[in-house]
Specification:
Elements lengths: L1 E2 L7 H13 L4 H15 L24 H6 L4 H5 L3 H12 L9 H9 L11 E4 L3 H6 L9 E3 H15 L6 E2 L1
Antiparallel strand pairs: 1-4, 2-3
Helix pairs in contact: 1-2, 1-5, 2-8, 6-8
Length: 174
Amino acid sequence: MKIAWARRVTIDNLMAVVKCCINLGWPIQTNLSNLLTCIAFETGRTFSPSVKNAAGSGAVGLIQFMPSTAKDLGTTTAALAAMTFMEQMKYVEMYFRPYAKKVRTLEDLYLAIFMPKLIGATLQTIVFSQGSVGYDQNKGFDATKKGYINVFDITDRIRKMSDEGMSANNALDI
């Protein structure tokens, strides 16, 4: 089995991701690579639990926990940033628990992070239009400058990150 991004994490951290997938009832064959891909994307390929959102949203960590999300999970972004990868994976698991049965694909998994209400939406579903705050905050997803962002635009980036994660430099065969 080839695991995306597995060369970029320690064996202990990889096992923490495996445990998370098992506890959420996700098939290891697909969701292990998918979760590592989402963590790679959200951390800018650093896999650092202390990485802060570059746009200044206040988000931090492996899946970029927003301050309000951290509070809902019974912690703070400061506490999350001080955790190890393995410690923070417990909060990653807690975050995904409500969406676990809805997540079937890489795209679903990423949408659970980005905007959970979009899980299962069609690729053509328009998420943000030019002139909205959401569009301004996420205009990087509108690569073709068409004036709106749909689910395809958002999930296209994560598919490319998955392809990169499967390269010989990043993937591991086990």
